[in-house]
Request: fold
Amino acid sequence: MSNHTDATELPYADGDFFFFESLLPPNELERLNTIRDWMEAEVRPISRDYWNRSEFPVHLIPKVAELDMISPVRRQGYSHLLAGMVTAAIHRVDASFGTFFSGHDGLFTGSIELLASEEQQQAWLPDIYSLKKTGVFAITEPLAGSDVAGGTQTTAVRDGDNWILNGEKRWIGNSTFSDYVIVWAKDVQDGQVKGFLVDTATAGFTATLIENRIALRSVQNADIVLKDVVVPDFFKLAHANSFRDTNKVLKTTRATVGWQAVGVQMAAFDVARKYAVERRQFGKPIASFQLIQEQLVTMLSNAQASMGMMVRLAQMEDAGTTRNEHSALAKAFVTKCMRETVALGRSVLGGNGVHVDYEMAKIFCDAEAIYTYEGTYEINTLVAGRSITGIAAFV
Reply:
């Protein structure tokens, strides 16, 4: 008698071991499945090719618009839980495409929703929601990453009804083709970091693709230079008047990165489980070996523990009870789990784990970017540490 069970008979083959998706009401589960099916049909078949060529499939942006995916919580009234599960589902297929979606939807659109005046929102949001205009968020600089709160060197000078921006930004995803960039710059008059909506066609604005990246290769990360860029005062975000105001956006988007890491872990589990069942060594599937099963179970355990934390965080977001330290702890923990999960997945595939055609190498590399952006593991850990000790370990 064989101990092998057909995959179609396995209740956990999809990785939802604790049936987290059952927490969604029927209309939200249907929405999740619609987006998941679209990702499988439209993005998965081309994702590795675009990743290898370090190009972004811009032709898919109008199709994303047809799905009406932007601002599911604030505009459409869906739960944070659905929004998080959608983010995970997108990253489960392709983290580069997911980074575009999260960047435009969370960092960029979220900034307009949270920090723009009502008049500004009325002027900008319709085209942003419909993806007639796309945008990104520019805060990191060549010499200011974790310390950008006090280390911002990009400047803004008031000149009558305009502002003049000068400086540099780095690692700004998809800014080579986006219509807008939200630039954070220090007002030289009062020393406060403020936010500006900059049209990328403005004279003095340049975005140059960063070459030779190993992670999220389809994302068009760029170095931005602003040289005497003139921004009308109307395009200064009305409620973005200090670096503290960025936390209104980053608290939510940091949680989004946790969901991204869940999706990447599930992607690694999908590839490793399928490979282990199909790959034969010593005359039988490697899934029959105890050590391989242990690795797969550890991968799934990490993913499900991460999912559990993110589900609870989403519930707290829906209740309005989250604080910055909650998002920081979640981002740190889940991305730490993700690093172990993708490493185990690469190990399960052996030598084939370093070849993009088997997908695991792509997943493994993409995880490194997610581990770092939206606050490094170390900084997010110290934010959580400050909340439980009352002592700041960094300035």
